[in-house]
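Contributing new records

If you add data, match the layout below exactly. Sequence lines come first and carry their own label; structure lines follow with theirs. Keep one chain per record. Anything else will be rejected by the validation script.
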Amino acid sequence: MKFKKTLIFLMLLVFSLSILGCSKGTSGTEKKFKAGKYTAEAKGHNAPLKVEVEVDDSSIKGIKILEHKETPGISDAALKDIPKNIIDGQTLAVDTITGATVTSNAVIGAITEALKQAGGNIEELKKKGKKEDVKKEQITKETDIIVIGAGGAGMSAAVSAAEKGAKVVVLEKMPMIGGNTIRSGGAYNAVDVERQKSQGIEDSIDKHYTQTYEGGDKKGDSKLIKILVENSLSGKKWLESYDMKFNDKIGSVVGSLWPRTHQASEPAGTGYINALKRAADKHKVEILLNTKAIELIMDNGKVVGVKAEGEKNLYEIKSKKAVVMASGGFAANVEMRTKYVPSLTKDMETTNHPGATGDGIIMGEKVGADLVGMEYIQLLPMAIQLTGPTINVENSIFINKEGNRFINEDNRRDKLCEAILKQKDGQYYMINDSQIVKETNELGDKISDLIEKGVVKKADSLDELAKAIEVPAENLKKSVEEFNKSVDKKSDNLGRKMWKGKIEKGPFYATLRYPAVHHTMGGLKINEKTQVLDKSGKVIPGLYAAGEVTGGIHGGNRLGGNALPDTIVFGKIAGENAVNEK
């Protein structure tokens, strides 16, 4: 009897253990998921983003991005690194990618939904593991040219130096190249007389010079402006030699003052960066991402290298020839911009990427560089939530919330913003018709997606549009009617000078817009060779600069479409001259 009881007890024990074993995987590990492949989606920057997640009983095995319409270049790091980091750490508690926060959150959100379907414990998966302190390795290296910043100016400098046979290292603190250039509207001002003439546009180098100089309140350096306008077209052709494409039609952008704008064919500024990356790869330029320059190394008054910090390494890089500073402006640095313009507080948004914090200006100051025009900070009158401009200004009118036009739309950017901020809520509506609103804007956003998000309002009639944006219909219709008469007369009581066509063919579109901090015109003072100058006007040996980190080119106001030629022209010059440094 006793033996029988013992046997029954043992059988029950084995049975109990077998039940417990059912909650484990075949390897004896805890069962966390129902094995299989799961798909899910989340709202991305431009459209829904779809993923496929593969799991076994105990782990996340693979993640694929199935569909997305995120902006190329800007989103690349988020699409690649976040799935990898989630798999490596077996956790959802991963950092977003700086500069691609919306895409990062979309990827994490879609993966989270897929793991929910797989029966995962989301709260547990969101717990962050203990982060180990990693001792960074000290690396010393030497190269011919060091470029700080991998935006349009930095990449142009790197490529032009490498074209001349120099060994080049580029330091970029962000996880992707591109800077503000890749986020731009892609507009490039250059006088191309023959092409403009074939499109009925009269233009000249002198006109571009005069408009740039006077448009900057005659505060820009005339020698630098001359270099800009005389070399913009050759800079464009240089980009085209690396297979960059531009649209055939020449137009204008807000604040450009004249139709000499060449629009990149690829979305936003991706065409510029893609072309420059192809060129950099061809010439074997080394680019270190997630690597922040922190100090210029000096030797007897000459800049001879850079100290930098990466994710895993500390660098001390010596330059045999020179350093090119191309780290961008400071529109994303609230403390720095309010130092020079107190009204530009944190309440005012910026169009800039989060890395535009003025690092190069600060480093330059520490080695004695002079600064110029720091108080000149431009607002972009075209900023809107979630996206950027959708069309050129030539076929548009701006109305306030009473339905009335209040300024000539082809005015300077600073004058436009000044007028906008006087309107109700500091906002206005941009009105267009079907003749110029394309399926996709220059940033790659589909108009249908913007309508779905509520960013753009669409209606078959002006009455319906007025109702949609809650402005008096009579005022809106009167504004459009008077504008159309002005198109016929080529004369406008608000002083408009650029005309393309009437607003008369539905459907009609309206976009709510407001100013945002856009471009810092001040920075390091340079000469015509892009050498950085000290406070006595003397050259700081071994230090060159180009792009928005510099000051003195645009004066008190930058013309729309002049920033990209600035980065390309002066970046190219900086690289060429840096190679010749003794």
